[in-house]
Design brief:
Layout: H1 18-44, H2 48-67, H3 80-104, H4 122-154, H5 162-187, H6 189-192, H7 202-220, H8 230-252, H9 261-275, H10 281-308, H11 325-339, H12 343-351, H13 356-389, H14 398-414
Domain Protein YTP1-like C-terminal: 142-381
Keywords: Membrane, Transmembrane, Transmembrane helix
Transmembrane segments: 23-44, 51-72, 84-105, 126-146, 166-188, 236-253, 260-276, 288-309, 321-339, 359-378
Amino acid sequence: MGVSDDDAEPVVVSHENTKSKTFHFLASLAMLVLLPAVSVVYAFANRFTVATIICYFVTAYAAVEAIILRFPDPLGHENKTSRGTAWFLFFVYCGISAIGSLLTGTNIFQRFKSGIKFSESTSHRFLAILFKTLVVIVSLAGWIRICLAPVALLGFCYDDHTGQCIAHGIMGSSFIAYGLVMLLILVVPSLRSPATPRRYAQEFYDSWAIFVWGIVNSLTEHRWGHEWNHGDFQHTSMGLLWIGLGALGIFLTRKGKRSFMPALTLIFTGYSMIQHSQNSVISTKVHAMFGMVLMCAGLTRIIEISFVLKDERSDASGEILSFQYLPAFCMIESGLLFMGATEEQLVLVHQIGADHSSYILTITCAAGMVNFWFLALLEWYLRLQRSSDGSVLINESYATIAGEFELDEISDDEH
């Protein structure tokens, strides 16, 4: 049984300079997460000039943030991980800006382009791949920086709480990333089109990820040589679940067939989270909601694969059906709920007088905004692609594309 929320150790919160801290956080969110995401879109659309200009602005902010700005805790110190992430972002952005300058020829590097078509050279292709890789890495690092900001400001995750914070941060971010990958495959036509050759279905790779992570979880949760406790049994059994269902999913999807096994894994994982007893009432309720949303993600994914698409990669019309957006949204919300379910965070929520329902609704709002932002980025990427090479918009069907392609061939033959 969990203890009363009133018996939990209170969280010390500093109310000094709250306006400046809030502005700093919002500025970092815009400059280190939102703007870099736009840069990623332009980079993958091969619009390196715009992507590089964006990186210039972000580099300038990263320099100010690393050298001057801080996220101090109530004692006036910022934890080393948060500080180190700020410096990492600054140095990597300096490198990205240099690579982008070389790609676009906007400064002294332009002299190296004389006498050759640099855009067609091997060096340019290598730099383009490197640029795209690095902008994705710094976008992820920006996400980590923003997640660490409240942790640093509130002085969370020290001593015995460190392991819990790391586990919730990694697993929560993994659920969010899985939801974003589901949206990516759903929205980008070339990824969901049956005409695009694919040896394996998405569930094959999902099953491998579940299987490998199950092995890691089973071998690392319990400290060998020590007595087993309640938490060891919970997490090790969950790892064994992932190993078993992951292996079955790999077998069922080995010939390119779709499978509901990864979704079934989500359902059982959600069930286990609902049944986990926590140290406080609010923590128990938030974890239960996380489990229910995760079960909803698995259930809706099974319905999508088995009944809506009937084991096909997309609907016969080529259109995205409204129901298909639901599993990804549930995955994103479950990830945010899990990230926000650490003991110290929930003690603070209770301490300020909020209840679990208000907290869950706030996180649901955040899930909607994350979902909206990623879909907007994907839509903008498709528009950039269409304007550059004639690829299709999000709402065009494959039948229409095929028909237009055949008409173009007939017209060419007649001429």
